[in-house]
Amino acid sequence: MKITTRIIEEILSNIVGDDLPPLLNLLKDKKNVSEFKLAEQLNISVNQVRNMLYRLYKHNLVSFVRRKDKKKGWYIYYWTLNMHEVKRAVQEFKHKQLDEFRKRLAKETEGTFFVCPNRCMRMKQEAAMECEFRCQECGELMFMQDNRRTIENIKNRINELEEELKASEREIDELRKRKRTAKKRAIRKKKASSKKTVKKKTAKEKTAKKKKGAKKIQKKLSAKEKKKIIKRPVKKIVKNIVKKVSKKKK
Ligand SMILES: [Zn+2]
Fold first, then answer.
1. What residues have a C-beta under 5 A from ligand 1, the ion?
2. Ligand 1 centroid – CA 115 distance (Å)
3. Rounded to an integer, what distance in angstroms lies between the CA atom of residue 23 and that of residue 35?
4. Distance in angstroms (rounded) separating the CA atoms of residues 121 and 138
């Protein structure tokens, strides 16, 4: 099913409000559109745009990313139409329509209808009999309607909807498959990169160990040096004492 602007307008305005088509048009086929830009293009306030966007957001029809404006210090929201969800919503709506058409077809084929020549009302034979085939609005005599054309029209519409739904289901399946393979690819990539980081870690750890070892050796060395430093003066002191004592003896 090709999602044309007309379909989006028709169906989404049915779901989320009839003021949305211009906004949907601006979001269609784009990514991360600034809400300020949207407000400017629609010539309405940012708050008004946000109100519309939240309505879409409630139905999961848009997604956003938030970025801080470095100059002004506040957050700006960038919006993207969630095409997958839009398609799903369109499909749901069409299923409902199809149900309604099928019910109407059953009604039309089962019953006989009477209409007023002035088109005020249309009713089933039983109801028309009750009011003696008189129109309840204008009093005109009602006549039996040949509804073969109506039935034909409903049947055509049902066929169309069924074809459209089949096509859209195929398309959604295709999208799902593409998403799944993309996910798998991402997982594989993640695994590969995590292996790399493990390798990097061990390499880092090795160098750290080497450094530690070097420090230990240094520590040992310095301890020995300290001992030497301490030993030397003691030796000197002893030598001096020995010298003094030997001098006194003399
Ligand atoms: Zn009438």
1. 116, 118, 120, 135, 137-138, 140
2. 8
3. 10
4. 10
Q: Residue 67 has what pLDDT?
A: 93
Angle at 78 between CA 75 and CA 83, to 5 degrees: 155
Phi-psi region of 33 (alpha: psi -120 to 50; beta: other; left: phi over 0): beta
Write the pLDDT tens digit of every residue in 52-96: 999 899 989 999 999 998 888 889 999 999 988 888 888 888 899
Residue 117 Cα, ligand 1 centroid: separation in angstroms? 6
